[in-house]
Amino acid sequence: MKLKSLILGSVAAAGLSTAGFAADLGVLTSLDVCDELGLSGLTISSDTNCLQVTGGVSYEFQWGDYRTGAGDASFTGVVANTFDGGVDPSTAALGDDVQDWESQVEVWLKFVGTASSDFGPAKAVIKIKEVDETRVAGEVARSADDETDGVVLDEAYVSIGDSTVIMAGRKSSIANLSDDEPFNFLGLFTSDKIDGKGVGVDGDYSGLGGHVIQVVSDLGNGVNVGVGLENLNGDSDVEDIQLLAGDPPLTHGTAVGVLSYAGEGITAHVTGMAFGILDGDVESYAVHAGATGSFDAFKVRAAVSYWDNFKFAEEAGLGEINVLNAILSGEASFDMFKVALSGEVADVSGDTEYTDYGFGGSIGAAVTEGISLNLGGRYFHDDSADLDTVQVAAQIVAAVTETIKITGEIGTFFGDRIEADLNFDEDQIYYGAAELAWAPGGGFTSALKGEVNSEDAYKVTFKAAKSFE
């Protein structure tokens, strides 16, 4: 807290400085360095350095009857599990006649100090973040995330260079894990299980980022390459891994290599990762590749990920396995209509073997200016248990004004997987949701959302956020 107070006080003092103090605080009034470096926004400059300041605050409040335990509920029903294709009871919102609520404030500040050098811009980056959260499930207080332990140092690194940049310190990974989200509006079941959607495995390649040494280079003509040593602090932020006894060797250091391309209508990449390099013995490796092509009215996307010797699964009692996930998705636009089709496969081999698969599709229509409709469905087959899950939904999006948007959705989940995993009397869940979003400008956004389902669960969520640059 002392660090936050010190930095906030320093920024406030700089911001309150006026021309009347120019004689004493001339170091804060010169903009020559920032102009020369092409930097704008909220800046403070000296004779040699330009300091950029950005930040933001977000707030979220949830209330209702939507949790049956400490787990986070997926309100609209069920999700397929990456390994068994099933429905996790802790992620299905079921009413139990006792109230649940959560209140969370997140704040972050980022400082980037830049100066010129013979090798290109030299930077020092510091980002601090704090999450203050209260979570109550069944009218009983629950522990919140690790990020609620006061102010955390989210980023702290130095970099130098222009077309080739060298970076070292604490920061995010250079791994490119994009070009892998399906186009249909409901997405796909296993894809939804991945952090941020896409292809991969639970945890979306834990062991990336952290303490790093990285080099990235722009080779021209849309080609970029990068290599890095990451997770050199041997830490992992994946909750499932933290629950395991001990620390698997593969969390100790990761080598990352990236090759990407971005040209007219085409983006593509391949990322390779080797885990557990600090002891001189690679414990596991993974590859993530994806490509997207846009051709007039058509888009196509393909992505694949493969993790060899997925040791996290072994530590969790699943044995040594190899995991391969892949998707293929396409979208076509015809005047007022938009059609999307997607398919996925999740193959597990080794001590446990099965091949799950699923597909989904949607059709969208611009009914009038500012009003659009989406109809869609998705299907998932659990090969190991021979059980199925289906979702069908209809969505309407209405831009009432330039700053106000209303979204409504109704749908259902059904299939023998739901009945088998959750012991329902029926094999079907109905749900409905409505959201009012307001973005009046100035970086401010807010939303109010209400949800209800046929299992007597309901939830109201309010969000508000503001960022500055």
Describe the protein's architecture and organization.
The protein is mainly β. The chain has a domain at 151-333. 9% of the residues lie in helices and 53% in strands. The protein has a 20-stranded antiparallel beta barrel.
What's the topology here?
Elements: H1 2-15, H2 32-37, E1 43-45, E2 50-65, E3 100-115, E4 122-137, E5 140-142, E6 152-161, E7 164-171, H3 189-193, E8 210-220, E9 223-230, H4 239-242, E10 254-263, E11 266-275, E12 284-295, E13 298-308, H5 311-315, E14 321-334, E15 337-350, E16 354-368, E17 371-382, E18 387-399, E19 404-414, H6 416-422, E20 428-441, E21 444-453, E22 458-468
Antiparallel strand pairs: 1-2, 2-3, 2-22, 3-4, 4-5, 4-6, 6-7, 7-8, 8-9, 9-10, 10-11, 11-12, 12-13, 13-14, 14-15, 15-16, 16-17, 17-18, 18-19, 19-20, 20-21, 21-22
For the structure shown, list the relevant keywords:
single chain, 469 residues, 20-stranded antiparallel beta barrel, 53% strand, mainly beta
Report a brief summary of the structure.
The chain is mainly β and 469 residues long. It has a domain at 151-333. The chain has helices at 2-15, 32-37, 189-193, 239-242, 311-315, 416-422; strands at 43-45, 50-65, 100-115, 122-137, 140-142, 152-161, 164-171, 210-220, 223-230, 254-263, 266-275, 284-295, 298-308, 321-334, 337-350, 354-368, 371-382, 387-399, 404-414, 428-441, 444-453, 458-468.
